[in-house]
Write a sequence for this structure.
């Protein structure tokens, strides 16, 4: 028979519990990431487009979140696919003060904390390629950045 020290016997359940906690998948990566957007990442054909809606994986804090929209300046030969559009949009940043792209003034409806943000324009957006860049503080206390790009064909479909 083996002799054990009393302190070690009491420590074993705590060590086991800690091992189970570490091995259990959790929500360590639960920062606010973009889950959906309207218009989607595509070529959209909507007359009178005035809103861009972003849906994040968790609520974001308005006071510490920034959203900027840009009408992208396309290369002379245009773009052939969404990969090229995303490459162009990825060059933007929330802190970019000087850009070859035209910043579009949009108002955010984010109040307090919400996972859904709608950006509004007083006038319909003209046809073109757009990117919205953001830096958001999620309620879990982590900051994430990203962008959403789409092409607005400026057609005659129903408006948003």
């Amino acid at each position: 028979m083996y002799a054990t020290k009393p302190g070690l016997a009491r420590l074993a359940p705590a060590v086991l519990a800690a091992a189970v906690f570490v091995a259990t998948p959790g929500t360590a990566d639960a920062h606010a990431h973009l889950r959906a957007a309207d218009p989607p990442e595509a070529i959209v054909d909507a007359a009178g487009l005035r809103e861009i809606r972003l849906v994040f994986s968790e609520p974001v804090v308005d006071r510490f979140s920034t959203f900027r929209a840009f009408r992208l300046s396309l290369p002379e030969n245009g773009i052939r696919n969404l990969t090229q559009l995303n490459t162009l949009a990825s060059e933007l940043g929330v802190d970019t003060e000087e850009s070859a792209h035209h910043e579009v003034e949009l108002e955010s409806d984010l109040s307090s904390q919400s996972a859904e943000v709608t950006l509004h324009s007083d006038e319909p957006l003209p046809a073109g390629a757009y990117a919205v860049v953001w830096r958001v503080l999620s309620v879990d206390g982590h900051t994430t950045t990203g962008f959403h790009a789409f092409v607005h064909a400026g057609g005659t479909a129903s408006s948003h």
Q: What stands out?
A: The domain at 34-152 is CATH 2.60.40.1220 (Immunoglobulin-like).
